[in-house]
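Hi support team,

I submitted a single chain yesterday and got back a structure, but I'm not sure I'm reading the token output correctly. Could someone confirm the output below corresponds to the sequence I sent? I've pasted both exactly as they appear in my results page.

Thanks,
R.
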Amino acid sequence: MNKETTPPQPVIEVSNLSKTYTISHQQKAQYGSLRDNLTTFLEKPFLRKNQTASTDESQEQFWALKDVSFTVNKGEIFGVMGQNGSGKSTLLKILSRIVDPTSGEVVMRGKVASLLEVGTGFHPELTGRENVFFNGSMLGMSRDEVGQKFDEIVKFSEIEKFLDTPVKFYSSGMYVRLAFAVAAHLDPEILIIDEVLAVGDAQFQKKCMNKILSIAKKGKTILFVSHSTTTVESLCNRALLLEKGHVKFIGETEFAADKYINREIPEVTVTEFEENPKKEAQFLEMQILNAAGEKATSVGMGEDWSLDLTYKISEPAENTIIGVEILTHDGNAVYMTADGDFQKEIPTQEPGTYHAVITFNKFHFNPGVFYIRASIQSPGKVVHDVRENYPLRIRKKASDIRTKYFGGKYMGFVNDKIEWQIDKKG
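Hi R., thanks for writing in. Yes, this is the structure output for that exact sequence:
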């Protein structure tokens, strides 16, 4: 008879966690004349300085977190996303035992190291060298244990030249380098990392991401917080999405990121723009059409679709070009086309209203949300009009080989048709 195996306990257990703050609202002070102030003083001479005859202050309860529950397993890199003010920082401070919750329970099974903001856990008057040992002692490590990792920490941080300089003279980038190196190399069971890594340069960020992956492979647990859905998706399989202190979603990172990006995307099929009589050229209308020529809010992966533009020329515009860019949610342009691409000479457009249809045949972008930016320009970088942040949502295929072999993830932005040929030689 086989014995039933008990599933391992989560490394992090958060149950019905809530945190409330009392916010005071000071009403606008009422200033009277000297005569009024003297009268008040004579009528109530013993009124305390901080006491008023009527209440000038109101208070309200603000719930930074409300009934948040989730678990994180050993060796998991768990993402946390949300807008500013969603409760991310409050959650991390509670998990790091910096702030006590109002209600609920948190169980952390293992030694915790946190990297929440620049300079966390560092004493400004101590040198970098002294802070390595100081920070290690805060994590419960002996001086000998820190000493064994010291050279590795210094090498990773790349600040050996400034190691004996008080950290109050460090730049924010130097702070982050040393702080991450200490937190990552002192073998915590649980590592909590906030958006602080964004301070470092691109090369160091990449170095940190590789270190995070190597830590997780050793069975350590990582809680990773970032506004970059691309980074969270590349590192984490599951994520928590917070919204105004509440749990909006917990599950696969791809879906969490989709809900986060789409939180403010309007379900519109046509956008009309207010006409400005002072502009020489301007857009009047923009819409997306699917393969059937119907107005759409999204298009299928690998399907034909079109961008329908209506614009107006008020004065003769020499060599006017219509440009269309497709950008990621963080503003990186991944595709561009312009009407000058197929014309040897761009004619002068006379005043009038024009209609342009840009067709994208078998558009092989990976699933996700992109944004369209359209512009009307003339030579000499004269920009007549720009319309941006128009959402383009690419839907996932119903079934795909990635679902079976790669967890359904689509890496990168483009998914073009590539020819493969594999021949057996023996």
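A quick pointer for reading it: The chain has a mean pLDDT of 81. Let us know if anything else looks off.

Best,
Support desk
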